[in-house]
């Protein structure tokens, strides 16, 4: 492994901002301090720019295997690294669904060969694979994923007896997609009768409404409390659900945690008129009044993590009529820029961004030596220029699908360098694919 010396950086880490140099060797941070002068293979003068821990995105859909016309682990990991995301946790609703240990191992093998970012993969739960779920090693796999509402891939777990057993026996964290299927089906029938083929994405938050989210999230919390399960509820999208979550204990002591995704903080239902199916996703982007309440819950620590739920589809798939167009939007290249824009708008501090995108995912999932800039930790680092504007445009989108709902947005900051496990993977628009990322491990 090469050595890297970063000089003159403003380090944002563990609630403070301070000037420092960082020396990285053999994949790890060896020394932090002022005036470091060790010889190094690569010397980066940060020139006062911000240095952050690498972003850890705990929820992405990279589509491989089986859906590689949409994306691959290779293509989307590159997009992640370009956006300062150094580690990802990927979902099991690929084709075939990851419902056996063998299929899970195949994903890890693909990533070991092709992923520029660090990686982990969720084991999928279904109505009939509990025995396979229970074989999952908590030290080498990020978690068990349960779809308590059907989404892309149709991995719905709707057998209450099975849910009880998974929550009772799970050896590790369970991450849930919470939308009540019966509510969604009833709403779908109602709006199909009302609108027929004339329906547009504007009705999506009515079809997949607040009631569907709250009913399912409440059930998940009830089961977790009953069985003392380590539960993490993904992509909270409504103000209605926020009372389910606690901010009276530190994150490391919580048994029930929750995340919010960047698109539920950035967009609201008024944006369907402009973007239509491009922002159709599950759970739906809701009415405008939810957004400030999600922000408040993020700031007061009822919501623990910021993620993306990156879920690419082809442009042609998204151009279909509303009922046929798939749900999901590509986001993993831009979450840090979105949140840095929120910093510039005064919505939160730079320290809070790092807490929610770097420290909290590491603590929530108990990741081994990542998420913080500390001596002895893996060197996952991102340099941010607070004066370099970044316009999202076709020519700089790294997603295989080639489009973003953020096209035309000009962010007030730029990501200049991304270091993944001690490897300078991205610098000033150029990738270095000669070294792949590392598998994440967990201290449980």
UniProtKB/TrEMBL annotation:
The keyword Hydrolase applies. PROSITE patterns: DIHYDROOROTASE_2 (PS00483). Keywords: Hydrolase, Metal-binding. It is an enzyme of class 3 (hydrolase). It comes from the Bacteria. Its EC number is 3.5.2.3. GO terms for molecular function: allantoinase activity; dihydroorotase activity; metal ion binding. GO terms for biological process: purine nucleobase catabolic process. Its cofactor is Zn(2+). InterPro entries: Amidohydro-rel, DHOase/Allantoinase_Hydrolase, Dihydroorotase_CS, Metal-dep_hydrolase_composite, Metal_Hydrolase. Residues 50-423 form the Amidohydrolase-related domain. GO terms for cellular component: cytoplasm. NCBIfam families: PRK09236.1. Catalyzes the reversible cyclization of carbamoyl aspartate to dihydroorotate. This is Dihydroorotase.
């Amino acid at each position: 492994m090469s050595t890297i010396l970063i000089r003159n950086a403003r380090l944002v880490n563990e609630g403070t901002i301070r000037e420092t140099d960082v020396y990285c060797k053999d994949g790890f941070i060896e020394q932090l301090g002022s005036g470091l002068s060790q010889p190094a293979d690569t010397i980066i003068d940060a020139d006062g720019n911000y240095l952050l821990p690498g972003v850890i995105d705990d929820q992405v859909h990279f589509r491989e295997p089986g859906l590689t016309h949409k994306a691959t682990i290779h293509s989307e990991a590159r997009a992640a690294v370009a956006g300062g995301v150094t580690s990802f946790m990927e979902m099991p609703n690929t084709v075939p669904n990851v419902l056996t240990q063998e299929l899970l191992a195949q994903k890890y093998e693909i990533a070991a060969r092709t992923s520029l970012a660090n990686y982990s993969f969720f084991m999928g739960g279904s109505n009939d694979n509990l025995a396979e779920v229970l074989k999952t090693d908590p030290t080498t796999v990020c978690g068990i994923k349960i779809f308590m509402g059907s989404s892309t891939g149709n991995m719905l777990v709707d057998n209450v007896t099975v849910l009880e057993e998974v929550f009772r026996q799970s050896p590790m964290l369970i991450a849930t997609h919470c939308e009540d299927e019966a509510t969604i089906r009833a709403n779908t029938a109602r709006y199909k009768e009302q609108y027929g083929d004339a329906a547009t994405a504007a009705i999506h938050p009515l079809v997949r409404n607040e009631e569907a989210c709250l009913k399912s999230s409440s059930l998940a919390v009830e089961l977790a409390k009953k069985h003392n399960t380590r539960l993490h509820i993904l992509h909270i999208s409504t103000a209605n659900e926020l009372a389910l979550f606690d901010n009276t204990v530190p994150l490391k002591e919580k048994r029930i945690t929750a995340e919010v995704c960047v698109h539920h903080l950035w967009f609201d239902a008024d944006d369907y008129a402009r973007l239509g199916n491009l922002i159709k996703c599950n759970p739906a982007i809701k009415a405008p009044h939810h957004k400030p309440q999600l922000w408040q819950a993020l700031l007061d620590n009822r919501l623990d993590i910021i993620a993306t739920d990156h879920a690419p589809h082809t442009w042609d798939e998204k151009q279909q009529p509303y009922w046929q167009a798939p749900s999901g939007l590509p986001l993993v290249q831009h979450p840090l820029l979105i949140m840095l824009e929120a910093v510039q708008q005064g919505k939160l501090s730079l320290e809070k961004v790092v807490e929610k995108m770097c420290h909290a995912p590491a603590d929530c999932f108990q990741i081994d030596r990542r998420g913080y800039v500390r001596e002895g930790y893996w060197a996952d680092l991102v340099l941010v220029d607070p004066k370099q504007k970044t316009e999202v445009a076709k020519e700089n989108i790294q997603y295989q699908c080639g489009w973003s709902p953020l096209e035309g947005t000009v962010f007030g900051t730029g990501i200049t360098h991304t270091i993944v496990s001690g490897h300078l993977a991205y610098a000033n628009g150029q990738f270095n694919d000669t070294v792949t990322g590392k598998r994440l491990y967990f201290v449980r």
